[in-house]
Please model this.
Amino acid sequence: MKNRSILAPTLGAIAVLIACTACAPDDPSGTPTATPTETPAATPSSTPSATPTVEPLDLDEPASWTIDFSGVGPLTLGGSISAERVDMTAFSDDSQPEACALVVFSALAEDVPDIWAQPGTDPDISDVLVVTGNGEPAPFVLGSPTTATGIGIGATEGELLEAYPEIASKPGPNPESLTYSVTDGAGGYINFAVDPSKLVESIAISDQSVIPYEYCG
Model:
């Protein structure tokens, strides 16, 4: 009898323990498990492309100027000569309006060629712009404005043909000289006069594929 009285409480305690274990929550700490949330991927921001910086024109260094279909340095084809004259600080104005309508800008530096502006029907609007070696192109090879391909006064005929392989020649404004012309396809021309020594003697920007024979006639 004594042995049964000890066994009965023991079995009862085991039964209670089993029942309580079945009722216990899965998470012993009692803290709810957090559900992970997805973080949306960041959308890359688009950075606008940088605008190319345009270098200001150096009025005191004509050798840095580019000859193109629109003009040379501060002088523009079809532009107002009186308005643009003030920027020709590296030149003196040696025009003689009482004798000739041609506007003559004489370079102050010995290695820079002169530049002429020939008006059209309007005496203030340039119709032709000419960079000229005045018959002696060799001294100006380093101080001359140049085209985008590097052709300026004093360049050789060979350099001209290398820069413009498709260019063709025709008789020039003076005996034994040749004229070569390139066009932008929209009525603009850059004309190169090559003298008998095979050097580029003058460069004319105009709406015609010729270099004038006369500027004051």
Remarks:
- The longest helix spans residues 2-23.
- Residues 1-28 have pLDDT under 50 and may be disordered.
- Residues 62-206 form one domain.
